[in-house]
Amino acid sequence: MLIIRVATKTPSMKRLLFFLSSILIVNAASAQLKTKVTCPSFEVDLLNGKVNGAKPDWVYALLKEKFPCYTKAEDETSASKCGGGLFFTDKGISFLTGRDYVELSSTFKGKLTPNIMGANRNSLFNTLGNVKMKDDTWDAYQTSYGTLILYFNKANKVIKIQFSTKTVDVIQLCE
Questions:
Q1: Distances in Å between the alpha carbon of 23 and those of 1, 12, 14, 26, 150?
Q2: Beta carbons of 101 and 171 less than 8 angstroms apart
Q3: What residues does 113 pair with on adjacent strands?
Q4: For the whole model, what pTM was predicted?
Q5: What pLDDT is stored for residue 2 in this prediction?
Q6: What is 81-94 written as a DSSP string?
Q7: What does the pLDDT look like over 42-90, one tens digit per residue?
Q8: What pLDDT sits at residue 34?
Q9: What phi and psi, each to the nearest 5 degrees, are found at residue 6?
């Protein structure tokens, strides 16, 4: 308080001090007004091959604009082994844009229609029809939009889902 009284004896010093304190207050106030990037909740429609209306073959820039809350982004022109994409590790979903497919892990947080995560392998015929290709740990279904691939654990429960606009014959998955 003593310093302020000494420095503010003249009117010009009062104005200078007022000006400097105003700048500090404005800067402090604007620093508190930063907004947090939010994403809509993810709604995945496996029968139509869409996430909130977006198809797996949407370009990187459009997806980045639609879903700005990604945890990791790799440009398609990067040297990544999977061809780039947007990754939402906290939500259990990834858009592999260089290969035009979406991947859902068992930790997926969102709405899944039909909700087949954790479903038994033998219970999927009524929902998805006949399997186009199969292996010990996965089944691939040909759909109207492309391909749906389901991965199973040892108990034959769905633990991972991938879907693409590409057909079973040409799809290239990242390993």
A1: 20, 17, 14, 5, 58
A2: yes
A3: 45
A4: 0.77
A5: 45
A6: TT--EEEETTTTEE
A7: 999 999 999 999 999 998 889 999 999 899 988 877 566 777 899 999 9
A8: 61
A9: -70, -45
Determine which helix (DSSP H) or strand (DSSP E) holds 27, and give its type and residue range: helix 11-31
The pair of structure tokens assigned to 102 is 């979406």
Q: What is the pLDDT of residue 93?
A: 96
Nearest CA-CA partner of 101 in 143, 146, 142: 146
Detail the DSSP E strand segments found in the chain: 43-45, 50-51, 72-74, 85-88, 93-96, 101-105, 111-113, 133-134, 138-142, 147-152, 158-164
**Which region, left, alpha or beta, applies to residue 38 given φ > 0 means left and ψ of -120 to 50 means alpha?**
beta
Q: CA 109 to CA 47: how far, in whole Å?
A: 18
User: Cis before residue 40, ω within 30 degrees of 0?
Assistant: no
Cβ neighbourhood burial of 82 (10 Å; 0-12, 13-18, 19+): buried
Residues of the chain with pLDDT under 70: 1-13, 16-37, 78-80, 175
pLDDT at 5: 53
Looking at this protein, which amino acid is placed at residue 94? Answer: S
